[in-house]
Specification:
The complex is a heterodimer of chains A (494) and B (261).
Chain A: H1 2-7, H2 11-14, H3 26-35, H4 39-64, H5 68-77, H6 79-88, E1 91-93, E2 99-101, H7 110-134, H8 139-163, H9 185-204, H10 206-214, H11 216-221, H12 226-248, H13 253-267, H14 271-295, H15 301-319, H16 325-355, E3 363-364, H17 365-372, H18 376-388, E4 392-395, E5 400-403, H19 405-427, H20 437-443, H21 449-458, H22 474-477
Antiparallel strand pairs in A: 1-2, 3-5, 4-5
Helix pairs in contact in A: 4-9, 4-12, 4-13, 4-14, 5-7, 5-8, 5-13, 6-7, 6-8, 7-8, 7-12, 9-12, 12-13, 13-14, 13-15, 14-15, 16-17, 16-18, 16-19, 17-18, 19-20, 19-21
Chain B: E1 14-23, E2 26-36, E3 41-45, H1 52-59, E4 65-72, E5 84-87, H2 101-113, H3 121-133, H4 149-162, E6 167-171, H5 179-194, E7 198-202, H6 206-212, E8 215-219, E9 223-228, H7 229-232, H8 235-242, H9 247-260
Parallel strand pairs in B: 3-7, 3-8, 5-6, 6-7
Antiparallel strand pairs in B: 1-2, 1-4, 8-9
Classes of the chains: A mainly alpha (494), B alpha/beta (261).
Chain lengths: 494, 261
């Protein structure tokens, strides 16, 4: 088979994407890129999609098994194998013991490189395991040691090959940082085969992979060969790394394994969704990287793809619907605004309570400021926030505040929550009455209806709080509300 | 096998003969002999480092034995593995793993489903029933990291129930759970025993061990005593179990471990 592959003319893969990108405008170039007219563009895109799929799928299992460092080590450990596979293409055998090596014969033979890389990857993994089991060196050190030493050997070999007569024009220099444009037809065939294999394995062995990843002990108790599944997974990772090498390069290939999967991990709580998301992210960042490398052929593809993947991760990190930093920040801000509104409502309620007044009566801005111990400016801002939410109306140029029915109900509920909680703490939890106020200040905003009902059931008498003030009850909350006092409708100072 | 003792045609749910097992060739358990009859709730107690978890793991082949054999209903473990249910220690897994409560319980069906196949509707029904039995059905769609310790333990129990086994091994199911869960678990264990299941439970709390279990296995690197709780739960035997590690046995174990390196 390798002979057949070697017969494919070199020009099929050596054409640079950039060579055909002469159009000036970005739109034209994008159109040309997407029209797939040029074979090299086609190869680059198809290749990026494949590596996105295979790296995304396997990356998920690497992330949930906490093997990111293993993936990194494996991806660096394949480099000497790549170089050796490259050198082997110069070996020709005319008889069983009649081997000859011709520098001039050296070509980039994907199948040989693939085999060499997989062998090196397996050797690296074996070294890590041996170090771990026979010495007291722990896994992280064993990984670091293997990564560095294999990588060093690989770089020496690569430099040596580049010094050979055929070295430079064979494209092996692209293995460090990747060049999607260097993907040829042979590479595509190999990538397709490996990707199909990975998809098939993940599909067929999904439940075995899931249970061994989650609970290896349990998996072994139902007689699943956890060890073999682990080795099989590592072999597939080695495959994925090798097919991604041409496009992403040795240095960054582990990022394509880890970053899309990590972004997906942030966004979902289900393994199968994580797999789909990671594949999507991997494909998007892969194609993005190939496109940028199409526009600017002198930029290596690997960093572009990884930048794309990192951008996706950043979006997930900041904007994720549940755990995103910005989302959490926004939730925090809106909650503290709500707490502030509720506190202002409570202050209005207390002003009226102290005056022994009816809910329809107005509260002046000055009274509110005194109650809140804040400046007039502060409380007028708070009052207009209440108005915006339809909880109060403002009159006499914003100096008089009147409850709306919904505002009154909410105020009663907050005060009721506060005083019920104080009562609960003093009666049921035996906490001194002068210790309970600060706690209730926090709790009043988070008590849900069912907890309040629970409190009501537990407390016998819910008419007075521990400080002797009345607890607003159902009758207060649903007091028939006379229409608010006539007058010019107020405006808020915002 | 030549050294199989005659069992009068009766296959014990669990039969262990001269089992020695440990980690990195350093033995933790020495010459364990055990025959557990059907329908018993057996507590495994002993001090830290006595090899309680190791015994369970050795029975299931998670720790390779250096000598001796284990039989489940008269056959080697692998041939009867579908009749075995396992509850590992709660701390042994990552609870941030992206699966729901239901997904975890479904794993209990995997041993019955077989390679290449997906669990079907009947499996899902069984998993739902098991979740209901531990009162965790309302949590079925929750991601597992949102659970309390007691709830996590119930999920593990539901997974073991879903295995529909005849003999269960449970590693510290009472560790770090609330009182309500502890009561619920013990009720469930009794219910399983009534159905003729055999249960071996690693337990760390002596005072409750006396009330919870039919039989006790007092373990300290070897079997100190095994029998009905009221017969075994005596001052002398407990003293023998907990009265310090057996110095000579642990020294020899160290020496064996050294030589293996």
């Amino acid at each position: 088979m390798w002979v057949v592959l070697a017969l494919v003319p070199e020009s099929a893969w050596s054409a640079k994407i950039g060579d055909v990108a002469e159009e000036s405008s970005l739109g034209q170039q994008a159109f040309r890129f997407l029209s797939f007219r040029d074979p090299s563009v086609r190869y680059a895109v198809i290749g990026s999609v494949m590596l996105g799929i295979s790296c995304g799928l396997l990356g998920c299992f690497i992330v949930v098994r906490k093997m990111a460092l293993v993936g990194d080590t494996l991806s660096h450990a394949v480099l000497p194998g790549v170089a050796l596979g490259f050198l082997c293409s110069g070996v020709s055998a005319s008889g069983l013991f009649d081997w000859s090596f011709e520098v001039a014969n050296i070509t980039k033979n994907p199948a040989l490189i693939f085999c060499g890389a997989v062998v090196a990857g397996v050797a690296g993994t074996f070294l890590v395991n041996t170090l771990k089991q026979t010495t007291k060196i722990k896994e992280d050190s064993a990984l670091g040691l293997t990564l560095a030493s294999f990588f060093a050997v690989g770089i020496c070999l690569l430099t040596m090959i580049q010094g050979l007569e055929t070295g430079n024009k064979s494209g092996i220099d692209k293995f460090m940082f990747g060049q999607a444009a260097a993907i040829g037809e042979d590479d595509i065939r190999l990538m397709l085969g490996v990707t199909l294999l990975i998809v098939a394995v993940v599909f067929l062995f999904y439940k075995e992979l899931l249970v061994t990843s989650f609970d290896a002990g349990f998996a072994r108790s139902i007689a699943l060969p956890s060890q073999w599944i682990h080795h099989g997974l590592m072999l597939l990772v080695a495959f994925a790394v090798v097919i991604a090498l041409q496009a992403v390069g040795v240095v960054l290939v582990s990022a394509m394994l880890i970053t899309p999967a990590a972004a997906a991990y942030l966004l979902t709580d289900r393994m199968h969704r994580m797999l789909f998301l990671a594949v999507g992210f991997g494909v998007v960042s892969g194609v993005l990287g190939a496109f940028i490398s199409f526009l600017k052929p002198n930029i290596p593809t690997g960093p572009c793809m990884v930048l794309g993947a990192s951008a996706v991760f950043a979006v997930a990190f900041f904007g994720g619907p549940r755990h995103g930093v910005l989302t959490r920040w926004w939730r925090h801000v809106s909650r503290s605004k709500r707490v502030q509104r509720e506190n202002t409502l409570k202050a209005l309620f207390q002003v009226l309570e102290r005056r022994d007044a009816q809910p329809e009566e107005s509260v002046s801005l000055k009274e509110l400021a005194e109650r809140r111990r804040e400046t007039l400016d502060d409380v007028s801002g708070q009052a207009s926030a209440l108005k915006q939410h339809g909880l109060v109306t403002l009159h006499e140029e914003g100096n008089k505040i009147l409850f709306t029915p919904s505002g009154w109900q909410l105020a009663c509920t907050i005060v009721r929550n506060h005083r019920l909680w104080e009562l609960y703490l003093t009666n049921e939890a035996n906490i001194a009455p002068d210790h309970v106020h600060d706690d209730a200040e926090q709790i009043e905003h988070v008590l849900g209806d069912d907890v309040v009902r629970e409190l009501e059931r537990m407390l016998d008498d819910t008419t007075r709080d521990p400080h002797g003030r009345a607890i607003p009850g159902f009758a207060d909350i649903h007091k028939p509300f006379a229409p608010s006092a006539p007058g010019p409708s107020g405006y808020g100072r915002s | 096998m030549a050294d199989t003792p005659a069992t009068n045609g009766v296959n014990f749910p669990l039969e262990i003969h001269d089992l020695t097992a440990g980690y990195h060739k350093k033995p933790v358990l020495w010459g364990i002999d055990l025959q557990v009859p059907k329908g018993k709730l057996v507590g495994i107690v002993g001090p830290n480092g006595a090899g309680k978890s190791t015994l369970i793991k050795a029975i299931m082949g998670l720790v390779p034995p250096s000598s001796g054999w284990v039989k489940i209903f008269g056959k080697p473990y692998n041939e009867n593995r579908r009749r075995v249910g396992y509850v590992p220690q709660r701390e042994s897994v990552d609870w941030d793993f992206p699966v729901t409560v239901m997904d975890v319980v479904m794993m209990g069906r995997y041993g019955h489903v077989g390679w290449f196949k997906r669990p079907n509707k009947a499996d899902r029904e069984i998993a739902r029933d098991c979740l209901d039995k531990v009162k965790m059905l309302p949590f079925a769609k929750r991601q597992i990291s949102n659970l309390s310790g007691g709830q996590q333990q119930r999920v593990f129990l539901a997974r073991a129930l879903a295995q529909e086994s005849d003999i269960y091994f449970m590693d510290e199911p009472f560790a770090g759970v609330d009182a309500a869960t502890e009561t619920a678990i013990i009720a469930l264990l009794h219910e399983l025993r009534e159905k003729g299941k055999t249960l071996l439970v690693v337990h760390h709390d002596l005072p409750t061990a006396r009330n919870y279990f039919d039989q006790l296995l007092l373990l300290n690197m070897r079997v100190v005593a095994y029998g009905e709780t009221e017969e075994v739960f005596t001052y002398d035997l407990l003293q023998k179990t907990y009265g310090g590690r057996l110095t000579i046995l642990s020294e020899v174990a160290d020496a064996v471990g050294q030589r293996a390196k």
